[in-house]
## 1
Amino acid sequence: MARRQLQFDNWHLVWFKGLIYVLLILYAAVTLIPFLWALSASFKPLSEIVSGEINFFPRHFTLENYRQVFLREPLFLRWFFNSAIVAISVTASNLLFNSMAGYALARLQFRGRGFWFFLVLAVLAIPIQVTLIPTFLILKSFGWLNSYQGAIVPSMVNATFIFMMRQFFVNFPQELEEAAQLDGLNRFEIFWQIVLPLAKPALAAQAVFVFMSSWNNFLLPIVILFEPEMFTLPLGLNTFKGQYISYWNYIMAASMVFTLPALGIYAFFNRYFIEGIALSGSKK
Amino acid sequence: MAPSILVLGTFAIAPIFYALFLSFQKVQLLGGIEYQFAGWRNFARLVEDDRLGIALRNTAEYVAIVVPTQTILALILAVTLNAGIKGKNWWRIIYFLPTVTSSAVLTLIFMWIYNTDGLLNHFLAFWGLPTYNWLGDPAVALKGIMLMNIWSTAPFFMVIYLAALQDIPKSLYEAAALDGANQWEQFFCITLPLLKPVTFFVVAIGVIGTFQLFDQSYIFSGGTGGPNNATLTIVLLIYQAVFRDLQMGYAAAIAFLLAAIIISITLIQRQFLGSEKFD
């Protein structure tokens, strides 16, 4: 009797595992098919695309679409460059300022600390759309519309990550800093030489998040950038769509070029990325 | 700290008050900026504006369908991935792809798939299902955006659930198994209750994110919110009020309405799901 029960359990387990793998494969297909379909279109000539045939392997493989995007579309490289400048500057300044602010809120005793922390939380609660119009008007009065400063400065710090870094530093072992203080290091030296190097995982997670959201940002750029030369890639891509309405081969090639850097960074930092989400999910 | 205060002050805190000021003004943007006190007029207009009604209805429908669906899908995916399968990391990497891809790229890919002669209609026809003009038919345009966003955001919440599942002690399941609880009972009596705080977080972030729908609607409709206002959302309406109608004051009033909706839903939800960990 007991043995039969065991056999039943084994059979049950195999069946259960099988079902799980089928589910996993099905969902992987659901995830990948749109990407593969777009990737294959980027290597097809237009005639093959409009024929309506469903073939994931191009019948007439061509690099012509990529050539069009890179060589004959004068602004595409410029957009790429703009996006890179903005995303890199935004990431660098976020890493620096968010961790400094987070550290100050967690460790330093200064007047109005509670008040500043409350302000950070308040900013977290207010949706970006409320501040969008004033940001536009403020940038306009600075004469920063349609400029790199305009695209970079409003995103230089981020309340969410100040909060995340504060949580990280609150849980950080204080003994290390006290030991360093005994060794005669001042606050700045402690921060640079002891605290920051140990905060690497949190910084990496933050870097990937900030880079991705800046690289993919659509709302702020569309409000403050209006000359095609200053567009970042998402805006450029949208213009591109307007220009080449049904040239899906060009649009897909441009989309693939746009996606590649983000994918590369994601593949490289995958571990931190997941950790970062887990961190922001469980710490709140 | 000082630079952070400066930037947050200039581009986050000052704008909140500036927006409050704007919402009581009639703003003229001709060369310079001119203000004219408008009292409650901008807020009174909120009630009369038909398109705001449409935008609210679209956004509410979108939130009501997308948030539960993506939360349940994320939970199913996380539990499936956590069932002791091989190559967990690889599955996770694949599933996560849509989340790191830009909304602009995803929208373009899906617009192409949604074409009348596109991949989705071919697929539907193959199974003998009805096909639609996904981009042009007001009855299904918003559904198309919903489908796409459930697909692209569920994996993000899946990762949050996965992290939370790791924190549930194995001993609880072992004890339950000894007591004769099967896998379903274990799921409903151990996993679900212990995930409650995470579910609160996932739903709260989901609600905030879905209420702010903009990129997809904008690209989908070329900025109009069409066909026939079917993809008009609150944020798209704010954008149109600023850049098409040049009514900054009214736009600020809509933005405050949106903020009020988001904050009150989050607070109500907090009452219901009651999370002690979330602060």
Note: The domain at 73-283 of chain A is CATH 1.10.3720.10 (MetI-like fold).
## 2
Amino acid sequence: MEQIVFGIGITALTGALATIAGSAEDTESNIGSQGDPNSQVQLAPQMGFVHRIFNKAIAGEPPAYGLWCALGAGLAWAFMAMQINAVLAIVLGCVLAVLVQGVYATTAYLGRTASLAKFGQPVYVDILKSMTSVTMAHAFIAIFCTVTLCHLINGALGHPFPLPLLGLIWGIALGAAGSATGNPYYGKERQYQNQKFGAGVPISASGNIVRYAEAGERNSLDNGWFTAKIGGSASGVCFGLIVFLEIWRTILFEKISAGWGAIIVGILMILIFTVIDRYIEVWARKNYGPYTEAKVAS
Amino acid sequence: MSAVAAKPQAGGAMNPTAMAVGVVMLLIILALCWYVSPGAGLMALVGVIIGGVLIGFGTHFVPVGGAPAAMGQAPGIATGVAMLAAGAGLAGLFGGAWAAEQGLVVATITGGVGGGLMMAITCMMVNFVYVFGMGIPAASGKVLYDPITGDSQKEFKSQGTEGHGLPFVSFVGGVIGGFLAGAGGTIIYLQLLSLYEATLPAVMGLPPAQVIPIAVAAAGMFAVGLFLVNAVLTAYNITGTIEGPHDPKFKRWPRAIVASAVASALCGFVAILIVAI
């Protein structure tokens, strides 16, 4: 019984850490335009819309976070092997991983933006100075939370994978969940705030991103502030649910019927999410209605 | 016609000669493995190939819209197909590896359910953001009616787009894709783990208890690597985006099966060589 209660406590903690990690990851990637909306940030100057948006997208979010989390976890693991306290080891490992992220962000912004010189897009040094440190701060939160939850899974819950491998796996999953959930909100709702609400961006409007804020020109800190409210929160909930439910069903139900208990609970949860998804889809169709009248086939 | 609206013309056709060459290459690699390690090595390689094929096939189900989906210009999840499939599959591998002691069948299904659960949560949250964050209903750009629910799609596409969000068939496709990818990755991990646990003590001259962490880490790394190999191969096959099983591009899966089998065989052969030589 004590073992189960301990497991549930650790599971809750990993879920909370994953929620924070997901939220910080999406906000970091939005400030850096690292998700798929980077295509519009890159396209805008080519269409004549010079901007002050940060753009460090030279890799997708999943492989980038796979690298940074594996790096943080690997370094933390090495420090722990040197008999350094686990908390200090994780912090040191994540700090070093974030330094790599900072180098990545700097070179990526300079490289991507310099390639647009022929379209008149300047490299703003003040943008580089102010945005890079903010992305590094958010990246530290995301990497630290992910490495910590990996350490808990490995050390407290006894998962067989070593810490660096867990860092790679959950780093990639973090990037996948964050980019899947958060990208549309940044891409459609923020970059194209000048388009109609409640409709996709017409393909003809591609590249015409919003470049001006309430006062002066918009920069990526404004985008991070905006997307943190829904896109970031939703990404956090998404990754938190993935980590929490995956571990929860294993901890509580794996012992039932030689592993089949966890499988049945997993299938039940998939069915529950299927019903919720269908409800959301039908709710939208009923409440928002069609864009055009349906044509009855003759 | 825009790049988004353009239908892929080349790339959809099957090339019988290339597929035959692929099958011959597969047989050659199997023969080489039989020559180097006829017992456990060959069995492990067959397991790796089956796992790789499941990952490659499963990735075809995952609804991925790429960059256009991020602007609500096309349906699907707004990220890369290889990355999303790898994320789902690796979440499944995490669960499958945890259940490794329960046997091949239970661990494989556990891995599959883990991948399916990750995709179910992600797909649900994608629709949540589209509907409640952006006020956009789901609509497919490839079919007039959802094959599962029968819901009409055309009038729910906003002007100037190819559709947006995840219609129900795409959600179901995502769950199936996550299940297959998670199960495939777990099979690869378990096959390599059993091979390494059996052979590494003799190769390294260490007691079995000491090689287990090395065996787990090596098998896990190869499983992650094979995930990415097969997911990227499928991403090429579907030219980056797909709506799910109802998308015409889904019919290209036989070609990806052959490619995944050959690539998995080659990678698996290398994984076996490190203990067979």
Note: The two ends of chain A are 66 Å apart (CA to CA).
## 3
Amino acid sequence: MTASILSLRVRKSFPDFSLDCEAAVEDGVTALFGPSGSGKTTLLNCIAGLIAPDEGRIEALGRTLYSSEDGRKVAPDKRRFGYVFQDAALFPHMNVWKNVLYGYNLTPKEDRRLEPERLMELLRIGPLRDRGVSTLSGGERQRVALARALAISPDMLLLDEPLASLDWEMRGLIIRYLKRIRAELGTPMLYVSHSISEVMALADDAIVLSRGRIVAQGPTSRVLVDPRLSGVAGLSTLENMFEAEIASNRGGEGLADLKVGNAVLLASNVYAAQGETVMASIRAGDIILSLDAPLRTSARNTIRAVIDEIHPLGQMVLVYLDIGTRLMVEITPGALSELRLEPGRTVYAVIKANSIMVMDPGEPQTHFS
Amino acid sequence: MLSSVLLTIQVSAAATLINIPLALAVSWLMVKKRVRGRFVIDVLIALPLAVPPVAIGYFLLLMLGRNGPVGAALQTVLGIDVVFTWVAAALASAVVSFPLITRTVMVAMGGVDSRIEMSARSLGAGPWRIFLTITAPLAYRGILAGILLGFVRALSEFGATVVVAGNIAGRTQTIPLALFTSVQTGDDRAALQLAAVSVGIAVVTLLTHNWLLEKSRLQAA
């Protein structure tokens, strides 16, 4: 367990809402998770210095950024956080390269650890260098915003729902880039999201907010099964998102075997080459659990797996299967009682090949410079 | 007549130059800093639009006259008297055109997405740098339009000017004052010429103003 890199105690009142939080954030990717209106973005803005709390204390990497007792308040431009807005908020009167250089040029030379060229390459926006930002797609804009924020060599990236305005396929791609940033550059991230699937796919730790209060915090795998969450998560679609290696692309006709945990799944509509890693997603509600292996079925994937944990989640029940990685299956309470499912029991998960969505077939490549 | 045309441009240009930094500063405080007492300041900004220009001129005369607080100070410190000079005309035009510049600049600055400015802030830019590199470049068409609008208002200024600067041919007699004198003395030829020149300058300036506003609207969309 690493030491905390950010600790905060924040109180802020609005006419119709109040925020009262105390948390310690560790190195890695931490999700600020909760439904809209729970205060996630307000808390993020307090950390960034864009909103002044009424009372409290914020410390990052041993530096006090805000303290109501000492009357200390470090200006947002002196905090060294890279902030990425939901809609990128690029500078419309500058091209891509000037956007990326804006903060880099303001960073003292001795603090510059990340070179803009390298970031452009890491995020695959090198070819967009001279383009005006109004000509970019949503995913491109978000990558430019990431490069621009990283170019100040930030102590931490603050991300305010960076995927919310993107389409489904682009979300998968940006998640991969965020993972890549984490792996390659080691920049810690605080990531605001109301999507449990995103949090599951990306975050090491999660802080769950509800109505301005923290209701759970800790490692994602533990926090998201917290029973208190069932009231918080106004769940949309729960997806399993994971990186998968193409074990075989079966001659490139769109069908491919994906290696997921210790299972191999047949998926359709995959055009990536053998050996490549892609981002794949399976909706938790699209997976069927069966006590016996189905004998004759059109579904192409039947995986034998042991039930890890079972948790109520809203009106449904969430069953975790261990397939070398964690697979979430959403079933009804009726199915749970009828099949008498319980942890330790062996079941068969049945998945159709076209229920496995591969988000970024063919892109991006896996080598870095 | 040429002297009054040149004088008008000189007075209006000086009035506009006085107003530009003030209007930018006030707009920035009102729109971006959201200072306390904005409702009161908003009324003060608009006041010269609503008060008769003659009253403004009279107020300026009280301030700048030899017995006024500002006039007395200028007299003792610098030994100058601004009343009934072109400087007084410029000050009168500045006060009268201030609301037009400021209100247009406020709208232009308000149109700049604050998240873009916050991005710049988080990237290490201080307030001055944000104003110079983000707000001003993104709002510049609206700012220019406001400046031109203030300039045309200064060109046509009469009431405040005649009270505080008088109507002295060659010294404070701008086009509107010369026009007034021509009408009074029955010199129709001069009156028509002066009126035509006024219309000409106004049309060119207003066309430029409208073109700038249209461009900035297109850019915002």
Note: Residues 149 and 206 of chain B are 7 Å apart (CA to CA).
## 4
Amino acid sequence: MIIAVDLSGRIGSEFMLDVAFEVPASGVTALLGPSGSGKTSLLRSLAGLDRIPGTIRIGADIWQDGAIFVPAHRRRVGYVFQGAGLLPHLSVRRNLEYAVRRAPEGQFQIEDVVARTGISALMDRMPAKLSGGEAQRASIARALLTQPRLMLMDEPLSALDGEARSRLLDALEEVLARIPIPVFYVTHDEAEAARLSTRSIRLKDGKIEKVLG
Amino acid sequence: MLTTVELAVVTTILLLLFATPLAWWLARSNRWWKEIVGAVAALPLVLPPTVIGFYVLIALGPQSPLMALLHPFGVRTLAFTFEGLVIGSLFYSLPFAVQPLRTAFEGIGDRPLEIAATMGAGPLDRFATVAIPLARRGFLSGAILVFSHTIGEFGVVLMIGGSIPGKTEVLSTRIYQLVESLQFEEAHRVAGGLVIFSFLALLALLLVDRRIGNIKP
């Protein structure tokens, strides 16, 4: 199975994304590059949240090609947003249930995901009452419970520092090593990418500068 | 009294139904001409109520092409009827429903809707399970504002309804009739009652706003 992406077009009036690559549909692909290089735009295009002209194929399925555009809610991606990534009016438990109710039966079970992301004590809290690290763990759990075909993570550690950051990094390493679905992981931190990813794509000014691994 | 409350309740319910899709579109659309629609929807804020009343009266009169459509059903005119009052009130109070709803919808931002989309929620699902609950403050303010504003309308109901006792007479036009016939004591009672009601409505609005205001999108 291969993920094939070929996108070229403008976002807004200034920014131009122009990328083409193929990666195996397994393991963690880090998307590296300075801010403004197009990492998040690429991730949002993969999710179907933005539409840049071109093609996106995942295995035999076409997500985007010419007039074909599968909307975000039919792609089954697990998206971990930078910053707030939970529905603010629902408790952590109801956020997870929101995902479960709309997902097909799959490999991720709620009890197991809750245990692995270490959020069992947070289930009845509202998102506004969570720390940055706690909210990010809950977001990761919510993303996994969509039974995604593709995990997309946008700098999940960026809002954290110190101990919270290193603890979540440990947890992520363990989770990512064990899930059998492809992951795209946006970061600008080389060390983080080296630790978590199997390969990397480096972007600059909306273009691919280098592919490693 | 009964006519007044009935009019306000019917107007509030209908208007929230009509204004919700309009406010959602105004909040989310990128079309350049959306502000033209927005301005038309806000027009009743600045027009004299008699102007609204005048046009609605013409539109509901027996000569109007709109009413011609209803002639086969035995309806010749809706002027000076309760139904006519409801139609006039809908126009008159439209901005009081659209504005708070639009502001509330705009305040949600893209993020919660995108989160829901990546969890497999389609557009209608997102609207019902994310947009509406997050905009509940707008719905409550809109409902209270429309209800109170409809209770307080005068020009429109006088033009369209003619203040027929038991049929199209509401409290505001009743006060006018009472003063005209020099029944000041009765006028005091009705006017004082409306002052107290309006105060309570605004107080409720502020309290509700504070209570549910602390959950931010």
Note: The radius of gyration of chain B is 20 Å.
